[in-house]
Design brief:
CATH topology of the largest domain: Rossmann fold
Radius of gyration: 17 Å
CATH architecture of the largest domain: 3-Layer(aba) Sandwich
Number of strands: 9
Largest sheet: 5 strands, mixed
Strand order of the largest sheet: 6-5-7-9-8
Number of domains: 2
Length: about 250
């Protein structure tokens, strides 16, 4: 098979939690056809969600090595919850170590959100998340420690007790939560979590609600991967990926 047949501009890898059905189709929708997207599964048998998430993020290099000799231009870690467990400082250390060991750019979904917020000069956010309570609290701490003020926090489905339940949510669940942010005292609405579909919700709102930008984990991760792998194709802001592919 000719390399130019698929991903002629670049190939990117994405690590996906074992039961997550959302990252791959959203990456494929968001990235240009000339970028090949190849997923590897994050697998761990622990019944406790925190143990699974910690294992995922502390073994990033192993996930990259699962590609063997495939030439990747960048690698994305599609699990925001893992970043929340370890915090931004440790996350940066882990991705830097994996990037050095595997000799390619490595970015997590949470790091990509941080990059987007910096581009938007956004310091006050409304955080929409689908997590169980304990993981949601870890997320609030993550953003506080990253000098981001979570002005409003909305949990999409408070009944959830495990991240696996997130995968049954829909973009309409995300849209209802976005619409529930009624205050105008934030710089950005962040929809956190790679497992909850968001693209239809973002398109319906035009990537803005009441004039406030709306970004999501998968949107930011796709944008950051494109910046790394093919910067000439990357829009200035993540929302440009939505505009480019209606």
């Amino acid at each position: 098979m000719n390399f130019a047949d698929y991903g002629p501009r670049a190939r990117v890898g994405v690590a996906v939690p074992q039961a997550n059905p959302t990252v791959e189709p959203e990456m494929r929708e968001l990235l240009p056809a000339t970028i090949g997207v190849y997923a590897t599964r994050l697998v761990h048998g622990a019944p406790n969600v925190e143990d699974r998430l910690l294992h995922y993020v502390t073994h990033i290099a192993d996930s990259i090595k699962s590609y063997g000799p495939m030439r990747l231009a960048a690698f994305g870690f599609g699990c925001t919850g893992s970043s929340y467990i370890v915090g931004a400082q440790r996350e940066d250390e882990l991705t830097a170590a994996a990037a050095a060991a595997c000799m390619l750019p490595v970015v997590t979904a949470a790091q990509a959100i941080r990059q987007a917020l910096a581009k938007l000069a956004a310091r006050r956010i409304a955080l929409v998340s689908p997590y169980p309570e304990a993981l949601a609290e870890s997320g609030y701490a993550y953003w506080r420690n990253a000098d981001i003020n979570v002005v409003h926090a909305l949990r999409v489905a408070e009944r959830l007790s495990d991240t696996h339940d997130i995968y049954e949510l829909t973009s309409q669940d995300a849209l209802r939560a976005i619409n529930a942010v009624t205050k105008d005292d934030v710089d950005c609405i962040v929809v956190s979590g790679t497992g909850m579909p968001t693209l239809a919700a973002l398109r319906q709102r035009g990537c803005a609600a009441r004039g406030v930008p709306v970004i999501s984990s998968n949107l930011c991760l796709a944008w950051s991967l494109l910046v790394c792998a093919a910067p000439e194709l990357a829009p200035a802001l993540p929302a440009g990926l939505i505009v480019a592919k209606p």
